[in-house]
Amino acid sequence: MDSAATLLDSGAGTKEMAPRHLGRTAHNMSSSSLRKKSDVALLRKVPCAALRHLLANLQEVLLATKLVLLFPAVILALAARIFHFGQEWVFVLSLIGLIPLAERLSFLTEQVAFYTGPTVGGLLNATFGNVTEVIIALFALHEGKVVVVKCSLLGSILSNMLLVLGTSLFFGGLANLGTEQPYDRMQVDVSTGLLILGVLCHSLPLMLRYAVSSGEHAVVSWDAGLELSRACSVVMLLAYVAYLFFQLKTHHQLFEPQEVEDDGDDLISQDEVVLGFSSAMIWLGVMTLMTAVLSEFVVTTIEAASKSWELSVSFISIILIPIVGNAAEHAGAVIFALKNKLDITLGVSLGSATQISMFVVPLSVLVGWIMGVPMDLDFNLIETGSLLLAILVTTFTLQDGSSHYLKGLLLLFCYVVMAVCFFVLRRRGNGNSDGVHQGVASNTWKI
To answer: Using 50, 70 and 90 to split pLDDT, how confident is the model at 339?
Structure first.
C-alpha cells in the first residue's frame, strides 16, 4: 500500500518497502520550493479504499505543485498535434507543457530515491536531473538534427551559468542588502574546474579543424575531428563518473545543503514519503513518456516555428528552449537566493551546467556514434568562444566566496549580449534549415 493511502487509512496495512533517509541535493530542494502540501481531509471521506488510494496518488502527483495550472498545456499540445493546428502552436504548447513535467520528474525521482538509499538516489538525480535535455537531444539525433542538439545543450549551459545564476544573485542581493551573502567555495571550484575541462574538449576539435584548413597540420583521416570528439567524450564521461564518486562518497558533506526552515509559509517541503515505491516507479515512467512525446513535438516543429517567427533555429535552440524548458528549476534557484541560501542556488545552476557539459554532451556524441550520426564536439567558433568566455566570467565572479547584486547584474548583461549575438547570427549553409551545417560540415576538410 502506498504511503499516501497509508496516511489516509491511519496506519492500516504495511508499506511495500521501508523508505530510507535521503541526503537531499540542491536540485531536490530547488524543486521542492515549487511544491505544496496536499490536503487529505476530503479524501478520508471517500468510502472505497481503492478509489481513495487512486485519488491520493493523483492528488500527490498532479495537484501537489504550484505549476498545476500549466498541465493543460500538455493536453492542448496533444490536441494541436492530432487536429493539425499550426506547428508553431504545437511547439509553444509543448515547451510550456515541459515545465511542470520537468518539476514532476524531479519529485518522482526523489520519491524513488527514498527507497533506494542515498547513493542510488544520487545516481538517479544525476541521471534525471536534466532528463528533458537528454530526451530532446536523443530525438534530435534520431532526426539527424545535430544543430538542434548542439545549440540546445549549449544554450542550457549558458542559461544556467549566466541567466539563472545572474538572476538569482541579482535579486538575492537586492533582497539581502546590508547582509553578508557567503557561499562554499569548494563546490564552486569543483564545478568550474569540470566546466573548464569540458570547454577544453570542445576547443580541441575546433582548433584541429582550423589548423588543418590553414595548412599548418595534416591528419591521418578526413574524420579526425569526429574521432577526436569521441575520444574526448569518453574522457569527459570518466571525469563525470569521478565527480559523482566525489559528490556521493568521499566528499558528500560538501554537496548536502542544510534543510531550510521557512516560517510556516509552506514554500519548502520537508523530507517525506508520499508515494509507495511501485506507484512512484509507474508515475515516473508515465511522466518520462509524456516528456518524450512533447520533446518529439518540439524537435519536429522547431523549423516551422523558426520560419513563422523569422528567427533562426540556433537562436530558438540556444535561447528560447533552455529558458522555457528549465523554468521550474530556475524559479527554485531564485527563491533560495532570495532567502540568502546561495549554496543551494549555486548547486542548482552550476550543478546543472556541469551535468549537461560533462554528461549530456558527451553522451550525445557517443549515442550519435551508435546511431551513425556525425555528432561531434566542434560547436563552431562563436558558440565555443561564448562558452569559454561564460565559464571564465562565472569563475572570476565567484572566486571570493561572497556575493552582491552587482555580480548578478554583470552575469545578466553577459547573457543579454550573447543572446543578441545569436539573434543576429545567420550562417551560410548547404541548404539545411537556418543555413546551419548538420554536424558533418565540420569534418568536410580532407587530407
So the answer is: confident
DSSP state of 251: T
Q: Residue 126: which of 282, 247, 272, 21 has the closest Cα? A: 247
pLDDT at 13 over 70: no
Measured CA to CA, the distance from residue 387 to residue 166 in angstroms comes to: 16
Sign of the four-CA dihedral 191, 20, 327, 259: negative
Q: For residues 413 and 422, what is the distance between their CA atoms, to the nearest angstrom?
A: 14
Rg, the chain, Cα only: 22
Measured CA to CA, the distance from residue 128 to residue 51 in angstroms comes to 30
Distance (Å, whole) CA 186 – CA 50: 49
Instruction: Cell 533562426: give the residue.
Output: 312
What does the pLDDT read at residue 185? Answer: 85
What single-letter amino acid sits at 394?
T
Neighbours of 305 (CB within 10 A): 21
Amino acid, res. 203: S
Helix (H) or strand (E) holding 352: helix 342-355
Q: What is the mean pLDDT of residues 312-338?
A: 84
pLDDT at 31 (0 to 100): 56
Highest mean pLDDT among 16-25, 336-345, 352-361: 352-361
Taking 80 as the threshold, does the pLDDT of residue 261 lie above it? no
Crossing angle of helices 185-213 and 342-355, rounded to 10°: 30
Across the range 398-418, mean pLDDT stands at 92
Per cent of the chain over pLDDT 70 is: 74
Average pLDDT over residues 254-278: 59
DSSP state of 259: P
- Between 8-22, 192-206, 208-222, the lowest mean confidence (pLDDT) is in 8-22
Which residues 6+ apart lie within 8 Å of 223 measured at CB? Answer: 374, 443
Tell me the C-alpha distance between 23 and 274, whole Å.
17
Confirm if 384 and 391 have CB atoms less than 8 A apart: no
264 φψ region: left (φ > 0), alpha (ψ -120 to 50), beta (else): left
Give residue 3's Cα distance to chain centre: 29
Mean pLDDT over residues 61-90, rounded? 87
Sign of CA dihedral 269, 116, 191, 205: negative
CB 108 within 8 A of CB 334: no
Q: Count how many Cα atoms sit within 13 Å of the Cα of residue 331 in the half-sphere of its side chain.
A: 17
Q: Which of 259, 133, 127, 255 is nearest to 191 (CA)?
A: 255
Q: In b/e form, how buried is each residue of 370-386, taking b as 16+ CB within 10 angstroms?
A: eeebbbbbbbbeebbbb
Helix or strand holding residue 152 (H, E): helix 146-158
- In angstroms, how far is the first alpha carbon of the chain from the final one? 66
